[in-house]
Amino acid sequence: MPTFSNRSFAPNRRFALKAVAGAALAPLGLPAAFAADDKYPSKAITYVVPFTPGGATDIIGRIYSVSLAQMFDSSVVVENSGGTGGSLGSAKVARAKPDGYTLVGGTISSHAINVSIYPSIGYDPVKSFEPIILTGTLPNVLLVKAGGPLKSVADVIAAGKKPGSKLSFGSSGVGSSQHLAGELFKMMTGAEMLHVPYKGSAPSLQALIAGEIDLLFDNITSGITFVNSGHLSPLAVTSLTVSPQLPNVKPLDQLGLPGYEVVSWQATFAPAGTPKPVIDKLYQAMAATLQKPEVRKQLVSLGVDISGDGPQKLQEFQIKEVAKWAQVARKANIKLDS
To answer: Can you give the pTM of this predicted structure?
Structure first.
């Protein structure tokens, strides 16, 4: 068996926030050099969210925009630029001037998976960017219809291994982390399952409730609502550790699939060539943001396992993710047109 392991907001418009002058930096634990450096920023920063409003990437971008505006006493503009699984907005940032005034909220899709499933995304997910901070990770959760015949992970595997298996799993789209979670499950168990893609999490969850598909690997943020309502049952989470939101649900790693791990992740990047002092200043501000109790509470409520890893650790993590999903995409023969 192969193992794979590594370790309410504004509408769709440009959204600017101006801080109150003289925001206190000392309580945030920022170094004196940070507070004394008045060269950057000297104008508005644009934080590109390469997805439509309302999702985790958008929410996190707006959290950072408020906090950075306060710390820097400068406007921070959130710009939604969705398309091609996050690649459209990411490509725009890759082409931007590397001066620290254009940032992007990167994810497992835009900065790890897409390069292996699209013929061209217009950038290299590693070489085209300077990593700043890994905000955190979110597990997917293996869901089935409550009261249905599948009661455990063992039931799913057994059903998928039956001759002529007609087992089906849904996802929020071809090439999404939900899709690849199912493909990795198939590879590690030998189960046969038909992939049924939908245009987002909402329709895939409704399809599962309606009985159109047998199971679904969905992001915990959207899936837990239907677990709490009693419509769906969680069989496992895709992280290596238990999620605080589902404390009684074990990881697949502990249910016969050692090394199984799929976590959606949220990070921030700048264009390649952005000066290190600017990257360091942005990292210090974002790391301080993640220490704020109100921010931590909000992120945990979304199901985020907060990280705060800096540029070097983020890049090491990202390189492993790119290689991992390239292998899964190749074995599953997943390719999309641009």
So the answer is: 0.84
